[in-house]
Amino acid sequence: MASCAVSNNPLRKQTKLLQKGIIKDDTSYVYSLPFEQGKTFRVIQGYFSRFTHKERAALDFNMKKGTRIMAARGGVVVRVKEDGTKGGLKKKYRSHGNNIIIQHADGSRAGYWHTQHNGAVVNVGDTVQKGQLIAYSGKTGYAFVPHLHFLVWKSSGGQWQQLPTRFQTSKGIKYLRSWKKYKNSKPD
Length: 188
Known about the structure:
By secondary structure, the chain is mostly beta strands. The protein has a single domain (2-6, 34-183), classed as Glucose Permease (Domain IIA), CATH 2.70.70. It is built from one helix and 16 strands. The protein has one helix at 10-20; strands at 30-32, 40-45, 58-62, 68-70, 75-81, 87-88, 98-103, 109-120, 127-128, 133-137, 141-142, 147-156, 159-162, 166-169, 172-175, 181-183. The strands form three sheets. Strands 2, 3, 4, 5, 7, 8, 9, 10, 12, 13 and 16 form an eleven-stranded antiparallel β-sheet that branches. The chain has a three-stranded mixed β-sheet with strand order 1-14-15. The chain has a two-stranded parallel sheet with strand order 6-11. Strand 7 and strand 8 (109-120) form a beta hairpin. The termini are far apart.
């Protein structure tokens, strides 16, 4: 059973080495945590986790419905979906998942999923700043509990590649790990 629960994606191994500090990276962009300054949330599912992130360099932050979601990086809003009203642990709910996608100056994009119905406070075409309120968390789409699903990706050679991301936390710059709590420090 364990073999079917682990990703064969080569990025999985690299991400684990980055998280453990075995590989050092001081070139990638440092994101703000996607929630308010001074708040702390637990990562309930990390990069390439065994549940629904087997092939995803994505993070799930455990958040109550209505928690303020902040832009982890500045950019332009390229997608807003906020009409979904259903959520649950059945794949039939995927299309109900509300989300916001922000494109950054380097062409990468960040996605914020499972926002609440009518919970976006930005529109397509808006320019947002790092740390700006963009939405409220919810439990729309394929979601077992209310949470924020966060993912960054970039086009490379015509293919979209997911990117593990570094974050500024109250304890320094980190690649986040499952089941750990992280506090958002003062933005730069």
